[in-house]
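Private note to self, pasted from the team thread so I don't lose it. Backbone tokens:
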């Protein structure tokens, strides 16, 4: 009883519930970026391995975030400057965001090139779809999970001081990702134009991570508003094509 009284005292106050609901919503929204990447990456695997790769990748993301929460004091310390260059003090968080952003830009650009010019890359694309291993896909998922996890945990720390709220928000957000991963991947696979739109999202997210790492913070609201507007326009295009 003392454990619950100590760690779950926030449940007895409206402010605690409001903080938990807000953080859950924030974690789910922040997970959209990761989910798009997972959907595009796992769709390149053979059909029989896709669902398993999504489950393993997202489960590993949950474990990673819970471990990071357990070392929360160290994670918060990652915002301390490590060195200064170009007039900007870089922290470990900045370096992780820049590395993750560069990886996303490279990955999205490569996939866009394959999509735009499939004939020139037909052999390599087919070979990649067949030869990419389950372990390789999960490794790439974990690489981006690390980037998004660090940013997610630091965001959570900035919103609440209750560790229990952070754990609940992360578990709920990852559960939503687990449920939504397969339907989203199937939707992307059945609608080829959505693939290009999703790759464009990844390119934009990658550039945003790089800018954030260099100290140019772009409000998340702008990014998600642009993504939502683009998705709405593409939805209208899909509806128009079906009606024709």
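Design output:
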């Amino acid at each position: 009883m003392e454990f619950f009284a100590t760690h779950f005292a926030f449940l007895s106050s409206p402010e605690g519930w409001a903080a938990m609901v807000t953080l859950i919503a924030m974690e789910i929204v922040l997970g959209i970026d990761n989910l798009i990447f997972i959907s595009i990456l796992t769709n390149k695997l053979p059909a029989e391995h896709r669902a398993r790769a999504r489950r393993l990748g997202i489960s590993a993301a949950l474990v990673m975030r819970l471990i990071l929460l357990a070392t929360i004091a160290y994670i918060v310390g990652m915002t301390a400057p490590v060195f200064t260059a170009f007039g900007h003090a870089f922290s470990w968080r900045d370096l992780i965001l820049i590395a993750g952003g560069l990886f996303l830009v490279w990955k999205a650009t490569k996939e866009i090139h394959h999509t735009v010019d499939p004939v020139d890359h037909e052999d390599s694309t087919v070979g990649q779809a067949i030869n990419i291993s389950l372990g390789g896909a999960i490794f790439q998922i974990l690489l981006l999970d690390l980037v998004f996890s660090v940013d997610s945990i630091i965001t959570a720390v900035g919103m609440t001081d209750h560790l229990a709220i952070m754990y609940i928000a992360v578990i709920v957000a990852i559960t939503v990702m687990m449920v939504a991963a397969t339907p989203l991947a199937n939707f992307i696979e059945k609608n080829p134009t959505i693939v290009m739109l999703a790759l464009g999202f990844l390119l934009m997210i990658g550039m945003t991570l790089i800018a954030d790492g260099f100290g140019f913070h772009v409000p998340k609201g702008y990014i998600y508003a642009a993504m939502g507007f683009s998705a709405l326009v593409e939805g209208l295009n899909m509806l128009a094509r079906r009606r024709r």
